[in-house]
Amino acid sequence: MSSPLHGDALLKALAEVGLALQPAQTVDGVVNAAGDGLRRFGLSFAVLERDGELTRIRHANIPPEVRLRGASPFEGMSVPMSQLERVAQAGRGALLIGDVRQETEKFYERYQPGLVGEVPKFIDQASFQRVAMQTLFVDGELWGGFTLGSPDLAEADVPAVTLFGVQLNAALQRVITLQQLEQRRRELEAVNAIATTRLEGSIDARKLLEQVAIATGSDAAAFYTYDATANEYVMVEPAFGTSTDVQATFRRFTPPDDSEAGVLHLTDLSYGREVIEAAGFTWFGYVPLKAEGRASAWLGLARKRLTGYTKAELATAALLGVQVNAAVERARLYAQLSQRVRQLTLLFELARSGVSAREAGPLFDRLLSLLVDNLPCDAAALMHAHGTELLLGSFRQRAGSGQPLNPSLPKTPFDDSTVTGQALRYQKAMKCTIDDAPERSRRQMLAYGTRHMMAAPIVVGERHYGALLVTRLTDLAFTNADLELLESCSAQASVLVEHMQLFDDLRQSYSSLEKAQAEVVRHERLAALGELAAVMAHEVRNPLGVIFNSLTSLKRRAAADPESALLLGIVGEEADRLNRIVGDLLDFARPYEAERSPIEIEPIVASAVEAAFAATNAQVKVVTQVARELPRFVVDGHLVRQAVLNLVVNAIQAMPKGGTVTVKVSAQQKNGSAAARIEVEDEGVGISPQTEKHIFQPFFTTKATGTGLGLAVVKRIVDAHHGEISVRRARGGGTTFTVTLPSG
Ligand code: ADP
Ligand code: MG
Predict the structure, then answer these.
(1) What is the CATH number of the domain that holds 649?
(2) Where would a tag sit more exposed on the chain, N or C end, judged by fewer CB atoms within 10 A?
């Protein structure tokens, strides 16, 4: 170590070191330049920095070999201000402290009694035997001070030290002012950046927080908004400058004071200390963002530096926080409004297409396109409900959005294994992601590369009509607002489909009314025809009676003349035929009203078959099959006999070459009571489709001697019973007539 400096030499040395301070840009830069310079001249140097009511000791040039038990003697120690205040009171110049050893021992007794014995050695080695102490002021306030030591520092050296102190103070004031200006510039930049943040759907919260962090000299920043349901403040993601660990630990925030900003040191934290320590943060600031005098949100700041937040820094944070809050709020309103507009547009479009739609197909095509374009989503589909299964109906897919949907997707059951099934079972819109999807949906999502899915039920009346299904391939999750929109669409679609079905029903009932009207007209025509026929028949019957009487006399007279007898035979046959026609006509024309009573049907059918046989005397077999334990049917026995007779006669006539007629009688449950079912089967010539259309019309016949009234009468009898008649052509020729007559 060089010999002690005095007088001019000291002055020169101090002036040289003073000059070296000028290029420094930071407080540390100034202190280190001073310390390094002074050490070269064998002078000891330490800076004391004021920290509230304490001073922190900052050693600038204690040589590394001069340590107390390996540690710098004052490192990390804060002591009361008293010493510096004493110097300050003495004036602004340096104050010589001659007996440093005594002072220092007093100091150690108080703060580190275990090291008191080592103090003399340290004092000597560090050249602290005698020191000059001087205060430093920044912005007119006591900032701290410094000590400059030398083994034989004299009173005469004090002015030189004072001069050096002035230079040091000027350098400090300069760097601190520079820092303040720089800080101010950053603040203004941040305010500007935040105030001009553009409002488009979502704002970049992270970017805003970054600005706040820069402006407040923080390494991390987070924004908390009030969550009314949990009654606490919750972090708005994303935060700036923190790891997910830290974010997870501090996702929720409960302010120590309800409306005041504050500062916390790492050691004040009641939880999450390890996480924070590992992340390197030391100080935290929290600032309320007030609306109507109450904190509506909080700004959280964290820094890794050793110095905590000052009031001024917190005030800056509060100012910026208000801007961030406003920007977040504006963005939220904007998003809400645009969502609402989107929703109304979609519903309006749907309603407009619904007004003109008469069929569900085009309506759903339109709806699916609207969903793909406006929701938006990558694919939208209508799933049709079929019994207990769902089938893919129409679908729309955004061009180029992944694998095309397979139109022949397997049916999915109507249960909890798919999100569509759930939507239908629980009658509400559902959404899921690939991570929480029900099993079967998850497999489909994996197959199609879909990440998000929503489904909403379509219920028409009481019936499950189907479900709407929409999917997204991207990471963008469906929001609750999206879910509500889909639900509105499905509700609207349900109403539209219901309207269409009502419209259809109406159309159908119109057409059945039309049919009924035509039937009435036909009935009236038949009634008029019947009346005419009855009069005609009556008029024909009288002359016929005369003809028959005369024929009997004539046959007797002409018995000897074979030629006359032949001719009279022909006349007789034709008169018979005429008589039969008149009989049929009268049968057909009389009013048919069923006089019902409980009857046993078997004897009635047997009697009809017998009569038919007698009337035709043909070479056919008639088999009657009657079901066992038939109930009594409440029908008109006479009319039933007549109907069966006519059908069996026709069946026999249809088999000129012989064959079998089978008459089957059974009971059939109809509207809660037993109806009589009579089938007449033949193996005859059959009926061509052309003929079939006309067979029930009166006077329609294909037979040379037919009257065309048999089936017309059967039809009237069936109608009188409110029953049904149908014709079936058998494959190998032959015909089956089936008559069903309800009881009562
Ligand atoms: P008709 O027996 O006097 O001809 P119907 O009203 O009884 O009058 O029958 C009308 C027509 O229906 C018949 O002419 C015949 O063409 C057809 N038809 C009725 N029953 C049968 C049958 N079992 N097989 C084939 N054709 C039949
Ligand atoms: Mg007939």
Answers:
(1) 3.30.565.10
(2) N
